[in-house]
Amino acid sequence: MDRRLTPFNGRVAHVSLTGQVEADRFVEGERHRIACPIADLLTKPKGARDRQLLRGARFQVLDLADGWAYGFAERDGYVGWVAASDLVGIPKEPETHRIASARSYGKTTPGLKRMGQITPLSLGTRLAVIEEIDGWARVAWARGGTPRDLYVPGQHLAPVDHPEADPVAVAERLLNTPYLWGGNSALGIDCSGLVQIALHACGQDCPGDSDMQEALGRALPPGTPPERGDLMFWKGHVAWVADPDTLIHANAYHMAVAYEPIKEAISRIRQQGDGPVTRHARLTA
């Protein structure tokens, strides 16, 4: 069983695994929501980062230990540990909008020139808008059990029920974003994070890691001319096709989200020892 998708920590397991693993307890768990701008999803308490979750993401908690919560992200089923302080219960107000610009912020006061405490927000963050005031959206915000309001520039928001049409256009907004292993935000992102954040913006489900993402779409025969929106995979890497000659991908060579000519990327990746393209996939019919 893949630990990333198997909600079992050696002691507690999700009820869906009854009869498949030996556990002290089988539980349904309790639904929570990520309450901080970005939460690391770790392999174990204080362990390595596997992925990240953005504010508003749902997380099913199965177990608690010393300030850490074990469970899985509802959107893609990715399993791991998050700091319990990064979680709150499901609020009464549903998330109505998402950050559609690459980066935004919330502040404790409305208006362009009024001072206030700043909270950075990444593309893909989901927020509950209560009202709009002169171009600013007042959103419900709570952390550590303390409710307060934040004000977000209205131009940076889009309704959650209005998905994007072009995932590559979403990825292009993150051009020059720093490369971060396991990153899923506009403050730092990796190759599979760039694929996932773009597809989520388009209302499409997407797993968290590149090896899982290889199941997306339909495989194309070698030599098929690339088209915008295709995905190209290598061992441990994935990239969007921006146009027939160019990729856009988050990569450690540039340490950023960058464009790169397809032929040059194929040659460079082979020369650095990571082999040939393993799959060329098209997500549209």
Fill in the keyword field for this structure.
285 residues, mainly beta, SH3 type barrels, endopeptidase fold (from Nostoc punctiforme), 3 domains, six-stranded antiparallel beta sheet, five-stranded antiparallel beta sheet, 4 helices, globular
Description:
This protein is mostly beta strands. The protein has three domains: 78 residues, SH3 type barrels; 63 residues, SH3 type barrels (Roll); 116 residues, endopeptidase domain like (from Nostoc punctiforme) (endopeptidase fold (from Nostoc punctiforme), Alpha-Beta Complex), CATH 3.90.1720. Helix content is 12%, strand content 41%. The strands form eight sheets. The protein has a six-stranded antiparallel sheet with strand order 20-25-21-22-23-24, with helices on both faces. The protein has a five-stranded antiparallel sheet with strand order 8-7-6-3-9, with no helix packed on it. It has a three-stranded antiparallel sheet with strand order 13-10-17, with no helix packed on it. Helix 1 crosses helix 2.
